[in-house]
């Protein structure tokens, strides 16, 4: 049984001390790395292994601090882990472990949230309310309950004080990355760091507002992504800014679902729904669910897929979807588009400065992004793609990481959300082992470039 947790430490002094200790530990780890001379033979297998071990150590230090802070700090760790162009691969891998690491709250704190939101205990609102959460994440936890009319529901309860820590946490994270990160981790300059953290701040402000999430969830329910994708109904009467009640879906997360060894045709049907549904949402509805980690997708026994947690969504403008479709079709075309065309697409998407010349783009940036583009567009290279053989996200070596830092301006809100969604989808479909027909998706890309 999970031990109930105390609420996160919301005091600025306590949270600053945790972040400060993490910065000190990162500095000491880097000093040890340099004193050992691990970089003396840059490019050698020994130096590469030492650098990867150093990145992992730094990632563990940062993850340890964010795990203590919990709440928005832990959620920020999840978002940062999804950006392949920002943090070194070893650091990202450790931060990615942040998913579902928050322990459950005790009964007294759950009651406090309900009294503040509704003026009463949960037992006064529901005919039955399970006091022990069945799911917990960085910002809240979920309880099973039954409405007075007999409908089974899932009730998401936000951890007390989470919203109040947001600004403090991002200030601490910004300070850590600016004073330690760009010197020791080869991160971008402070302007790019601020831009990325500003976008994380926007996402987190939305995610701690369950009324905003309920509105987004109702929008997706009214604009179906696919016939086999289910969005649970929001129960407005039992929802507030810190409590979200929705219809309970009975299904399994991807690992538990695959453990039951569902037939290949069922897995393929579900994978097809997710693949086509996300691209339909982005390229035709111009909005994306930006948090497709395994905890937010349920595989239902009837072959459909349940989509959860709409706290982080993003409206996608036509210039972005056109630019993305153009870049991906240029990359997968045979013969591949020339460097000048790819240079134009990167600039149109706002990923590079207008002052970045074609010669530098072709010589330095294009080799650095090639493996990332190969990985992202891999499913579109065949009429049917088997995700059981999907490659893992590429590990970008130190020279190419440095090129990304020098030449990429940082992510726009649209690109950051899309990258997060696409990475989550690729991981899900790989775990599911689904084989999908990509012809409809390729047609959508071609239509968007017209």
From TrEMBL:
GO terms for molecular function: kinase activity. Residues 100-335 form the ABC1 atypical kinase-like domain. It comes from the Bacteria. The keyword Isomerase does not apply. Keywords: ATP-binding, Kinase, Nucleotide-binding, Transferase. It is an enzyme of class 2 (transferase). InterPro entries: ABC1_dom, ADCK3_dom, Atypical_kinase_ADCK, Kinase-like_dom_sf. Coiled coil: none annotated. Its EC number is 2.7.-.-. PANTHER family: COENZYME Q8, PTHR43851. Belongs to the protein kinase superfamily. ADCK protein kinase family. This is AarF/ABC1/UbiB kinase family protein. It comes from Pseudaquabacterium inlustre.
């Amino acid at each position: 049984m999970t031990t109930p947790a105390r609420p996160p430490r919301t005091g600025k002094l306590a949270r600053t001390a945790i972040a400060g200790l993490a910065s000190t530990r990162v500095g000491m780890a880097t000093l040890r790395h340099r004193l050992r001379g691990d970089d003396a033979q840059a490019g050698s297998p020994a130096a590469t292994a030492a650098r990867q071990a150093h990145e992992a150590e730094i990632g563990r230090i940062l993850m340890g601090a964010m795990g203590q802070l919990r709440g928005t700090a832990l959620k920020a760790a999840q978002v940062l882990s999804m950006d392949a162009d920002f943090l070194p691969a070893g650091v990202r891998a450790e931060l990615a472990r942040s998913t579902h690491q928050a322990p459950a709250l005790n009964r007294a704190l759950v009651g406090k949230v309900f009294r503040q939101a509704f003026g009463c205990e949960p037992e006064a609102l529901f005919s039955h309310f399970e006091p022990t959460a069945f799911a917990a994440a960085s910002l809240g936890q979920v309880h099973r309950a039954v409405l007075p009319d007999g409908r089974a529901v899932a009730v998401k309860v936000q951890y007390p004080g989470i919203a109040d820590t947001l600004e403090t946490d991002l200030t601490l994270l910004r300070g850590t990355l600016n004073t330690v990160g760009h010197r020791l981790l080869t991160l971008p300059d402070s302007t790019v760091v601020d831009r990325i953290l500003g976008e994380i701040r926007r996402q987190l402000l939305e995610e701690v507002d369950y009324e905003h999430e309920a509105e987004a969830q109702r929008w997706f329910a009214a604009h179906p992504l696919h016939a086999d994708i289910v969005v649970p109904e929001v129960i407005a009467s039992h929802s507030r800014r810190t409590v979200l009640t929705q219809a309970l879906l009975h299904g399994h997360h991807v690992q538990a679902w695959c453990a039951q060894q569902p037939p290949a045709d069922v897995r393929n049907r579900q994978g097809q729904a997710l693949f086509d549904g996300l691209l339909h949402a982005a390229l035709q509805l111009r909005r994306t669910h930006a948090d497709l980690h395994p905890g937010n997708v349920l595989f239902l026994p009837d072959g459909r897929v349940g989509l959860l947690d709409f706290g982080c969504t993003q409206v996608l403008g036509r210039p972005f979807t056109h630019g993305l479709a153009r870049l991906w079709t240029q990359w997968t075309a045979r013969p591949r588009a020339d460097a000048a065309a790819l240079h134009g697409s990167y600039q149109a998407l706002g990923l590079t400065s207008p002052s970045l010349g074609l010669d530098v783009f072709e010589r330095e940036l294009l080799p650095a992004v090639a493996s990332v583009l190969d990985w992202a567009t891999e499913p579109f290279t065949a009429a049917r793609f088997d995700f059981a053989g999907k490659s893992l996200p590429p590990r970008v070596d130190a020279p190419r990481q440095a090129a990304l830092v020098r030449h990429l301006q940082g992510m726009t809100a649209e690109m950051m959300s899309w990258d997060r969604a696409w990475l989550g989808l690729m991981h899900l479909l790989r775990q599911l082992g689904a084989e999908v027909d990509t012809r409809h998706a390729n047609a959508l890309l071609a239509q968007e470039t017209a």
